[in-house]
Amino acid sequence: MTNQKVAPASGKLGILLPGMGAVATTFIAGCIAINKGLAKPIGALSQIGDIRMDKDGKQESVSIQDLVPIQGLDNVCFGGWDIYEDNVYEATVNAQVLDRYMIEQLKDDLAAIKPMKAVFSNEYIKNISGPNVKTGSSKMDLANQVIEDIENFKKENNCERLVMVWCGSTEKYIEESDVHSSLAKLEEGLRNSHPDIAPSMIYTYAAVKCGVPYANGAPNLSCDVPAIVELSEQTQTPIAGKDYKTGQTLMKTILAPGLKARYLGIEGWFSTNILGNRDGEVLDDPANFKTKEVSKLGVLEQILEPEKHPDLYGDMYHKVRINYYPPRGDNKEGWDNIDIIGWMNYPMQIKIDFLCRDSILAAPLVLDLALFLDLAKRAGDSGIQKWLSFYLKSPQAEPGKMPEHDIFKQQTNLHNKLLEYAGK
Known about the structure:
Elements: E1 13-18, H1 22-35, H2 45-48, E2 50-55, E3 58-63, H3 64-67, E4 76-82, H4 88-95, H5 100-105, H6 107-111, E5 116-117, H7 139-156, E6 161-166, H8 183-191, H9 199-209, E7 214-216, H10 226-234, E8 238-241, H11 248-261, E9 265-275, H12 278-283, H13 286-304, H14 310-313, E10 317-324, E11 333-341, E12 347-355, H15 358-378, E13 383-384, H16 407-421
Parallel strand pairs: 1-4, 1-6, 4-5, 6-7, 7-8, 8-13, 9-10
Antiparallel strand pairs: 2-3, 9-11, 11-12
Helix pairs in contact: 1-4, 1-15, 7-8, 7-9, 8-10, 11-13
C-alpha cells in the first residue's frame, strides 16, 4: 500500500445534522455523555475499534485511534436544521430514546443547541409538518440559504472544518432522471425548482458546494447521482451514501454471507418491522415506504449472486414490510422468517426476532461516518468513499458497478483503507 499523508486533526470539527429528531439527538447526547465520562462509545469503530496487522513479523491488534489521526470528541461541536423549533434538550426528551436521568445530566449542553430553519416540503414527506421552515424564491435560493447557514455556523463556532451527516426522514421515492445527470443540469434544475430535486438533495448540494464532506443516512436520492459526484470531485469533497445499516438489514448482511459460505439454499426471506417513532410515521405513507423498500431489497441479491447459484437462490422470494405502531416508539422490532433448503432439498427454517433500539444502533454510525469522512478529507480523498459501505444499507458505487453488501468484505475494505492512510 502507498503511504498517504493525512493532515493532522487540528482545531475544532463541526458536525452538521439535517434533521434533529431521535437519531441526531441520541447521537449528540451520546457524544456529550462520553466526554463527561457518563457513557462508553459502544458500537463506534472510530473510538474503540482495532485492526490486526503484521508488526515485526508478528500479528498484533492496533487501535484505530493509534493508527490514524481521528478527530477527538473533546473538540467537536454540533448544529443542524429541523422543522420543529425545539432545542436539542427538548427534542431529546420528546424522542423518548434515552432515560430522563441521563438527559437531565446533559441538559445545559443540549439546551444550548438550537436548530436552524429547515428546507422542507410536504410534497416529499406528507405525514409530518412543522413551523421552523425556510421560504425562498427557488430551490437554488434555498440552497444558498443553507450555504449561508454553513458559513455562519463555521464562523460563529470557530470551526476549523465541517462535516454533514443526514439524519432526517425518508422522502418519497424519486428515480434518477436527466436533471441529475450533470452539475450544470442540476444547478439549472435548482434555479427552476425542478420536482425531482428533493430537500435532501438541496442540503447535499449546499454541503458539497462548500467542500463539506457529506453522508446520507436515509434512502433518499441525494448524493448518489452523477451531478453530485461531479461536484464532489470539483470541490475535492468526500461523499458517502446511503441509508444507515442498523437493525434488520444489519442482520441480513451478517447471516446471508454465512448461509452462502455453506452453500445452503434459500427459498424465501420474509421481513417485517414495527416502528413507532417519527420515522415510522413517515414510512406509513406508501410513497415514502417505497424509498425504504428499494434500499432494503437490494441487499440479498448482491450477497447471494443468484445468477451464479440458480439452484440455491434463483427462485428466492424476498418480501419486506414496515408497519407503523406508535406504542413501540423508537424500540423497533424486526422479524424475519427464512425458509432454507439443505442436503437432498430438505426444508428448514430460521426465525429472527430482533428487538432493537433504532437510534441507539444508528448513533455510533453517525459518529463513525462523520469522523471517517473528515479523515478522508484531510487525506485528500474526494468523491464516493466505497470503504464506508460498512455503515450503509444501499452503498454508493460507480456507474455500472454493483456495491458490496457482505459486511465482512466491507469490514476488510474499511480496514484496508485505514491501513492505507497509515502507510501500512
